[in-house]
Amino acid sequence: MTREQIEALQLEGLQETVRHCMHSEFYRKRFQEIGLEPGDIQCLDDLRKIPFTTKQDLRDTYPFGIASVPLEQCTRLHSSSGTTGNPTVILHTDKDIDEWANQVARNLWMVGLRPTDVFQNSSGYGMFTGGLGFQNGAEKMGMLTVPAAAGNSLRQIKFIKDFGTTAIHAVPSYLTRLKEVMDKEGVDPRKDTKLRIFAIGAEPHSEEQRKRIEEMFGVKAYNSFGMSEMCGPGVGFECKQQNGLHFWEDYYIVEIVDPETLEPVPDGEIGELVLTSIRREAMPLLRYRTRDLTRVLGRSCPCGRNHVRIDRMKGRSDDMMVLKGVNIFPIQIEKILMQFPELASNYLITLTTDDDNDNMTVEVELEELFTDDYQRLVALTKDIQRALKDEILLTPHVKLVPKGTLPQSEGKAVRVVDKRKVYQ
Ligand code: COA
Ligand code: AMP
Ligand code: ZN
Predict the structure, then answer these.
(1) pLDDT-based confidence at 381, cuts 50/70/90?
(2) pLDDT category of residue 308 using cuts at 50, 70 and 90
(3) Based on C-alpha coordinates, what's the Rg of the chain?
(4) How far is the C-alpha of 298 from the C-alpha of 307, rounded, in Å?
(5) Domains and CATH numbers, the chain
(6) pLDDT-based confidence at 268, cuts 50/70/90?
(7) What mean pLDDT comes out for the span 188-202?
(8) Are 272 and 291 in contact (CB under 8 A)?
(9) How far is the CA of 227 from the centre of ligand 2 (A)?
(10) How high does pLDDT run on average in the chain?
(11) Given a cut of 80, is residue 413 above it in pLDDT?
(12) Which ligand is nearest to the CA of 148?
């Protein structure tokens, strides 16, 4: 499609979506508040008449308050982690699931995968959209699909060898771990496997990290951007040129805004990614603030596609961390820690890459020192670790330290130290 064709399709999709959103209690109220009628959307620029939607809106309307269709028309939901506050819930109809699979299939086809390929998905399944999202897309494309799910590297390697896996979807930090286990097992991916293509994403990573993965395995690795609020994986994907992610503008309208002023920034300048879904039924989101920082690289590509090219993610405009492909807010950790009367209020979260594994260490000060009671200390550490795992879905190292030992910062406390250098 030419830019004109893409934009004509977008206007049609936007107008239809705004009309459809009148069925959503949340959006109907919002439109009424500002006196907006669906007929006011006459051109793509009119999108700016619509207020932004935020994660807080999703939380405030938990669980189903933004839906634009009756619940009986929905066939699936995905929810974010968290038990202490309201998680975010995204609803899907059958058509949404089918379109989502179509988007993922398009991506996989674009980078050269075909029905003769064997696709292994090492994403978490269940609520993680990378699981069912890639599963449905790879199946739709006709590949033999191996729902290996996250973890158990020895089994992953057995599948890769026995089933002749040619392509894997994984978070980039996990692939370095997988290679470490391959090395230990004496498996050479170049000689002993048929691997040729990786889809890597769901967490920030640098160009250097991608190159390293490509060299380690002798494969091509393509960046995949996904977000549960928009569907999941399939929102943006690199083509064979590897020169930015093509965001699929027949499904989304892409804006980049200054996170402070919320005004659009010129192409090439870094700002916050704002997405409007224009083909979803159950729960379209208008001008959704993703909080991811990036920029527009161009609107044409040597591959022939004219869908906007977006740079790899450069950071966040909030304090969300993505570790092992899992989204975590520091407040989730704080709320769990504060449930333990033995703990004081000062804590520090450190993210590191040790021996090719990404890890989180939570150091927290004890209200009262009882280092002489070793057993009690071990039991408390385990209890905290288990409670944190239930909340954030991965297992942090927990270190209990005497009161006054963690750095006290003036003003706003520094709660997170990220030593992984994922944004570059
Ligand atoms: N994907 C796949 N496997 C992973 C992983 C990841 N992101 N992170 C760790 N693993 C593997 C580890 O290598 C280990 O297996 P091994 O020892 O056989 O190599 C196993 O999972 C457990 O790892 P550990 O770090 O001890 O577990 P954890 O309790 O901290 O939780 C996961 C790790 C895997 C359960 C959790 O991080 C997860 O589910 N991640 C997947 C997230 C995802 O799919 N995101 C995509 C969203 S679209
Ligand atoms: P989720 O809704 O769990 O799929 O998480 C979505 C978030 O994961 C995004 O808002 C990003 O912060 C992050 N993310 C997903 N894909 C990528 C990617 N390719 N590069 C960097 N961050 C990503
Ligand atoms: Zn391209």
Answers:
(1) very high
(2) very high
(3) 23
(4) 9
(5) 91-318 (3.40.50.12780), 326-418 (3.30.300.30)
(6) very high
(7) 98
(8) yes
(9) 6
(10) 96
(11) no
(12) 1
Residues in the chain: 424
pTM over 0.90: yes
CB 75 within 8 A of CB 97: yes
> In this model, does residue 360 exceed pLDDT 70?
yes
**Residue 371 confidence (pLDDT) above 70:** no
Residue 370: pLDDT over 80: no
pLDDT score at 355: 78
Instruction: Write out residues with Cβ below 6 Å of ligand 1.
Output: 122-124, 128-130, 150-153, 170-171, 174, 177, 181, 202, 226, 233, 324-326, 393-395
Nearest CA to ligand 2 atom 6: 227
Give a three-class secondary structure readout of the chain: CCHHHHHHHHHHHHHHHHHHHCCCHHHHHHHHHHCCCHHHCCCHHHHHHCCCECHHHHHHCCCCCCCCCCHHHEEEEEECCCCCCCCCEEEEEHHHHHHHHHHHHHHHHHCCCCCCCEEEECCCCCCCHHHHHHHHHHHHHCCEEECCCCCCHHHHHHHHHHCCCCEEEECHHHHHHHHHHHHHCCCCHHHHCCCCEEEEECCCCCHHHHHHHHHHHCCEEEEEEEECCCCEEEEEEECCCCCCEEECCCCEEEEEECCCCCCECCCCCCEEEEEEECCCCCCCCCCEEEEEEECEEECCCCCCCCCCEECCCCEECCCCEEECCEEECHHHHHHHHCCCCCEEEEEEEEEEEECCEEEEEEEEEECCCCCCCHHHHHHHHHHHHHHHHHHHCCCCEEEEECCCCCCCCCCCCCCEEECCCCCC
Residues 220, 199: Cα–Cα separation, whole Å? 9
Tokens standing for 258? Answer: 């200054």
The mean pLDDT of 219-243, rounded to a whole number, is: 98
Q: Could you tell me the distance, in angstroms and rounded to a whole number, from the CA of residue 225 to the centre of ligand 3?
A: 15
- Dihedral Cα 284, 290, 295, 296, nearest 10 deg: 0
Predicted confidence (pLDDT) at residue 220 exceeds the cutoff of 90: yes
pLDDT band at 411 (very low <50, low <70, confident <90, very high): low
Q: How many CB atoms lie within 10 A of CB 329?
A: 18
**Residue 287 C-alpha from the chain's centroid:** 18
Among residues of the chain, what percentage have pLDDT more than 70?
99
Quote the ligand 1 centre to 324 CA distance (angstroms): 6
